[in-house]
Design a protein that fits this description.
- This protein is α+β, with helices and mostly antiparallel strands.
- It has a six-stranded mixed β-sheet with strand order 1-12-3-5-2-4. Strands 6, 7, 8 and 11 form a four-stranded antiparallel β-sheet that branches.
Length: about 600
């Protein structure tokens, strides 16, 4: 499967220049700073170990679109013989510094982009090896080495004579024997008595080391599977950004010869396809993410690929050619372009249907979405059943499954196994060919959980917030109609505290929770501005601003499942007990099942 040998650096860099060695397209652009480039050049001049580089032979079943290393210019496209999996930064740095007649694009210690030429100080280089790092000099693109905030020119290296006079050898043509010999003659001529011996030492201690330097190279066989390539890359790429399946598929789809052979086709651009899908979805349904924060914000490419894989493996199982419904990494890596191209439009339409479903549940903003992961099997089920999800009773069944997943907090851990069960079980249940999914039968909500729902980190917290809006909560400032999905951003609706925490703690200490969802409700920013102090004091301001009779405003308060009398009397204990019961009933209604209540368990708060 793999072979290890040593290859001369000169030959490796020549392969880079010729396009024989290229990068698979999933590799990110290189970015090493100036100090690291100087250090690796010093390593080569000392013949110290560079570290193994890993390559993949081409021509196997795992076809990747390839691209040249940064700086390599090919006259025409060329099929590589090897793809570089590990060693991109090292080889790109050495290729640019030792083989190109243009300054190297790099960065300083602060990350600012700079251009540099690399030289060796001959006199320093023939000294102790410990001083070798200091002998490698980087020079700005204008070849003026300056100090004192660029006010003093230390070396002007714009001509060969200037370089020889300074004793700084330019590394960009170190492998070009003719140019090295020309530079040597000019250097010795500048000061023959001193430089003849110095050059001999430099040639032996530095140039000869570079010319004979060998790179240990592992060659993976062309038969290496896609999953193995991915695993190997992730193990060797410990210092970089983890490789994801989307990037691998981008490279393999782009290298799909059947697609590129079609009339009028170039190559398949998966990122462009995904960008169009995501922009259409998030543009209409903000719950899928905020595009200004990046294409992967919210619904991700991985989520979409998982939904496609679930549909594909479900179809294969139904046809008797697949063993299981699954969306593990292996399933994604084995997803053929032809199947993705066929299923992607259907899955995209299914996610749009999911967006509509979430609107009906009053979940319209990404920050209010309880579980992004739960949307993956839901979209897959829609893609499998199609309009069957709109049939009589199906919408109620899907809503029950959804709310059991949210309020039972069923998608908080590992999800791939649950994806599989939910797709198969929900499809069968909706077709009246099976029992309710495990997500429904296994879900439960203990009443005391209300006390602990304090932040948006909990899916159930977000779920109860959405259910309060869905069941008809009316804002305490904009009282004309119940809150609805289209008004949430317009009114700056958020979760607002009902009784002030400090006020409650002064009177009740820690005996009653103050920061739980029981003491919060969805209200506009304008309403919250008037909610200063205890409810008995701020209700009069809200009533006055609403131009309503107090008893009518009590009805508005009741739409939030709140006892208005308890508010008016500042009775927090009564308020908390009553609202807990009403929220529990709301949860029970959404889940379609009664669960363990506070009265049945005993009140554990006291």
């Amino acid at each position: 499967m793999a072979a290890l040998d040593n290859v001369k650096l000169k030959e490796v860099l020549a392969d880079v220049a010729l396009g024989t060695l290229q990068l698979p397209d999933f590799q990110r652009d290189w970015k090493w700073d100036d100090d690291r480039i100087r250090a690796i050049i010093a390593t080569v001049t000392l013949d110290y170990p560079l570290g193994v580089v890993m390559t993949l032979q081409t021509g196997g079943s795992s076809r990747f679109r390839a691209r040249t290393l940064t700086g390599a210019q090919l006259g025409e496209a060329k099929e590589p013989e090897l793809l570089l999996l590990d060693g991109q930064q090292r080889l790109t740095s050495l290729f640019q510094a030792l083989s190109l007649d243009v300054p190297v694009e790099t960065a300083d210690a602060r990350g600012k982009s700079i251009q540099r030429w690399y030289y060796v100080d001959i006199a320093k280089a023939v000294g102790p090896p410990a001083d070798r790092d200091e002998s490698i000099i980087s020079v700005p693109a204008n070849k003026l080495l300056q100090t004192d905030f660029n006010r003093t020119v230390v070396h002007d290296l714009r001509t060969m004579e200037d370089e020889c006079s300074a004793g700084l050898f330019p590394l960009q043509f170190v492998f070009d024997t003719q140019r090295v010999n020309s530079w040597k003659k000019a250097y010795i001529k500048a000061d023959e008595e001193r430089n003849w011996d110095l050059w001999g030492q430099f040639d032996e201690m530095v140039l000869q080391q570079i010319r004979t330097f060998q790179v240990p190279m592992i060659r993976l066989a062309a038969t290496t599977s896609m999953d193995a390539v991915c695993a190997v890359f992730e193990r060797v790429n410990t210092g970089g950004v983890p490789l994801n399946v989307f990037e691998l598929l981008t490279a393999t789809y782009a290298g799909d010869r059947d697609y590129s052979a079609q009339p009028g086709s170039d190559y398949y651009r998966l990122p462009d396809v995904w960008r169009e899908i995501k922009q259409n979805l998030a543009g209409k349904y903000p719950v899928f993410g905020r595009l200004e924060q990046g294409i992967e914000n919210g619904l991700s490419s991985s989520d979409f690929l998982q939904a496609v894989a679930l549909v594909r493996t479900w179809e294969r199982k139904q046809a008797g050619v697949g063993a299981a419904v699954s969306c593990k990494r292996r399933d994604l890596l084995e997803l053929p372009l032809a199947d993705f191209d066929r299923l992607a439009p259907r899955v995209a339409e299914s996610f749009a249907w999911v967006g509509e479903f979430l609107q009906q549940q009053c979940i319209v903003r990404a920050a209010d979405l309880p579980y992004r992961t739960q949307l993956v099997p839901l979209a897959a089920v829609r893609a499998i059943i199609g309009e069957g999800t709109d049939s009589l009773g199906a919408e109620e069944m899907i809503a029950q499954w959804y709310w059991c997943g949210v309020l039972g907090e069923m998608y908080g851990g590992s999800t791939e196994t649950r994806f599989t069960r939910d797709v198969e079980q929900l499809v069968a249940w909706l077709r009246r060919a099976g029992n309710a999914p495990d997500t429904i039968s296994d879900a439960f909500f203990i009443a005391d959980r209300l006390d602990n729902l304090t932040t948006r980190n909990s899916a159930a917290y977000k779920g109860i917030y959405a259910l309060l809006i869905k069941q008809g909560a009316v804002d305490w400032h904009f009282t004309g109609a119940p809150l609805n999905p289209g008004r949430l951003d317009e009114y700056a609706v958020d979760v607002r505290q009902i009784f002030p925490k400090g006020w409650v703690q002064q009177r009740h200490g820690q005996s009653l929770p103050t920061n739980s969802i029981v003491n919060k409700t969805p209200l506009s920013y304008r309403a919250a501005q008037n909610m200063t102090g205890a409810p008995a004091s701020y209700l009069s301001s809200l009533v006055a601003a609403s131009d309503m009779r107090p008893e009518w405003f009590d009805d508005v308060i009741a739409t939030h499942l709140i006892d208005a009398d308890a508010l008016r009397s500042n009775d927090y204990e009564r308020f908390y007990a009553d609202r807990s019961r009403q929220l529990q009933d709301l949860v029970d209604s959404a889940m379609g099942k009664r669960t363990m209540h506070r009265d049945a368990m005993g009140d554990g708060r006291r």
